[in-house]
Specification:
417 residues, mainly beta, 15-stranded antiparallel beta sheet, 4 helices, 26 strands
Amino acid sequence: MSILRSQFKAKFYEILFVGCIGICLIPITEAASRLDAVTVTATKTERSIFETSESLTRIELDEIEATQVHKLSDVLRNVPGVSIGAGPRTIAEKPRIRGLGGNRVLITLDGARQNFNSGHKGRVFVDTELLKSVEVLRGPGSALYGSGALGGIIAMTTKDAADLLYPDKQYGARLKSSWQGVNDGLIGTATAFGKLNRLGGLDVLVSGTQRETGDLRLADKEKLSDSAEAQLGGLIKLGWSLVPGHSMSFSRQYNYHRGEVPAQSDSLTSATAVLTDRETELSLDRLSYRIDPIHPLIDLHTFVYHNRQDILEKRIGTDGRLDSIDFTTSGVDIRNSSRILRTGRTHRLSYGVEYYQDEMASRKGQAPNLAFPDAISRYSGVYVQDEISFDGRSRHFVAIPGVRYDHYRSRSEFGVG
């Protein structure tokens, strides 16, 4: 991130005022209603993909499991306008949308921002076995999400117990094992889930995954040296229905990734390349509260999260230097939607506030990392959006104006370990 490259102490203030409007013409037909899919990324409200003006793709759980994905690039392989840069190593994957990447593409996991972005290192550290859906918004989403979504959004959602339970069943378990020939990869996943009709209703999901892969075989039958990897992943998710219309959930995710890769892991191994033993850890804690739309003016979503990514690199065969990066993102998101009926049109007014903080500490051996000094950035934003539906006999128009105000402050400490 550019705010982390500053080599002097500074304070920045930025005001972002962004507005957008989209209009789409939708014929109301029986076939369209049968094929309807619902998205929440484009407007932060549940809306049919057919009724969004944005270019959006949603990948459901059935498709994820049917294609036997092993990494995020497998999930996004057939999404138009999306590419994965930085080579085939999982540890180096960097998604791009219409050629834009880095801090121009917002990546979220259960709504929590995944803001880590560093040269020659990947951006996405998630176990695909835990994913329920992935939504990709191609094009600006700045009116709702801020300037970090100028290129688009990749929104990942993890599984709940309800996604795996059979109808009328209270509990269950799944064991899964798969093998991948391109890298002799072996994957094992164990998941237990259930629900209890106590205290208003409880549901629990516990899942763990282990992966071991060898070097990748390329199209010319040669192997990509130093691409073998090992990975551990886990998810604990608890849901609680307090009273009708009110619910809470807590989740903790953990992902550990290790591999001997070049320091520039997006490149081929060469005689001059510096080889490192890299360990990457991700932990994400999230607590949410929801009020269902039991009243036309209330549809409240709020959550807080703490996301931590630690990277350790030990050089192999040289001086044995140990480098480290600790990156954390903490945030809160509060939003509500109100439905207002008028003659000939319907308004769905969405408004909310968001605050998040990025903090990084890094070292280069025993010394501070002058290229990436310790830094902290704070962001706050408020936004409002109005989804206006004009109803007709066989067709209707949807206009979605929106505006957002952001305040930004950053500070870095040059030479502080």
